[in-house]
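Possible regression after last week's pipeline update?

I re-ran a chain I had predicted before the update to compare outputs. Posting the input and the new output here so someone can diff against the archived version. Not blocking, just want to make sure nothing changed silently.
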Amino acid sequence: MPVQTLPLTTASGPAAPARRTAGASTGWASVIVPVAVGAALGPLDVVLKHVLPAPFGHLLNSSPVWALAAFVVGWAVRARPGWWPGLAGTLTLLVAVESYYLAYVVLRDRDTATLLDTHAQWWLFVGVGAGVVFGTAGAWAREGRRWRGPAGTATVVGLLLTGAWVELLRFAGASDTGYRHDTVQAALVLLVLAAVAVVLAARSARQRVAGLALALPVGLGGVVLAGALGMA
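New output (post-update):
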């Protein structure tokens, strides 16, 4: 009788389709995650900013928290092209902006023109820049490479330090006691988040130390940029 041979199960055999399937699912996840996060962030902001106690409602509607979402998405997605985390961060924020204004149309009976009015266009413009920067920073921090790792960690920590400083500037310029109290609380929460980011957004002690050292000038630059954009 003829000799029967079993099919090979090497890397060049049947195992290859499995790898391709895994790669395809990872690719889809890299698209679904930013869209889902952005679609959730916008409506949650609209609903919860009037429900959560101070300072959390205010912080949910703040630029640092939205940029932090892009960073987390950049950290989470696992796609081979080096440019994709930045694009994923941008996609997150663009979807978040439009879902935010769409929630106002649906829940607050706003005109549909708000979806593309000057305010929406401005935040879409900001979302492109912030998404690229913080999405890429998230991926760099996760990779933990020699200089990219500390740079990614420094970017997110500097973002939160900038947010805390901006809140303190608002405290200094406010006269209402309640508002001043809220801004101090917001600054403290952002400082706590910065400390947490130093620990979590790094893969090694070296990355944490270098990232924290770089975060100080990054935060200072962020304050200057926030002032130039009228956000401070």
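Follow-up from reviewer: compared with the archived run. The mean pLDDT is 89. Marking as no regression found.
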